[in-house]
What we know:
Layout: H1 3-34, H2 39-74, H3 78-95
Helix pairs in contact: 1-2
Amino acid sequence: xxxxxxxxxxxxxxxxxxxxxxxxxxxxxxxxxxxxxxxxxxxxxxxxxxxxxxxxxxxxxxxxxxxxxxxxxxxxxxxxxxxxxxxxxxxxxxxxx
Length: 97
């Protein structure tokens, strides 16, 4: 396995860690709501989950741009290039809502 591949695997591993932490924290938030904990405490935990998910999203986006997207842009297939651009625009638009 080359250095670039190891680096990509590490980045994806980091995003997976963020997803798992988010899942665990969401379960804690659900319990906090069920237990009628203080609203500000719940909101702070909610913001922590949002931050972790945004971080995981950013890692995935960077990995996609450096690998899949770059390969598509290097190809001779104009249709594939346009599809990849549209995918990026769609995901970026969703992330900005």
